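To fix ideas, we quote verbatim a fold written out as tokens:
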Amino acid sequence: DITILKSGPLGGDQQIGSRIVEGEIDYLFFFTDPMTLQPHDTDVKALTRLAGVENIVFCCNRSTADHIITSPLFTDPTYERIHPDYTNYTQRFENKGIISEAVEQVKKRRNKSENNISK
């Protein structure tokens, strides 16, 4: 399916980003004029980053598009991209108690060392 969204500066980049995160996009063909400054350059960079994070096929020029479209994987119904597992990253703050305990232990050791030095 091909879906046409809004222009980038009008929120189209965010629409694409949202669809990437929701797993609705497997291939992104995103063409810009490389000789023209983009008013939404940071949004374009964010899309590039999201494509890498979500491991989707991303192309920004004709040569890459030609290679993707002619690849046997492009039409292979059994091909599935690898979805990265970010469980450890998303749960990194769940062990905050362990970190707090470690910080407290370091503080106690410092206080003990300072008390021994001052005696």
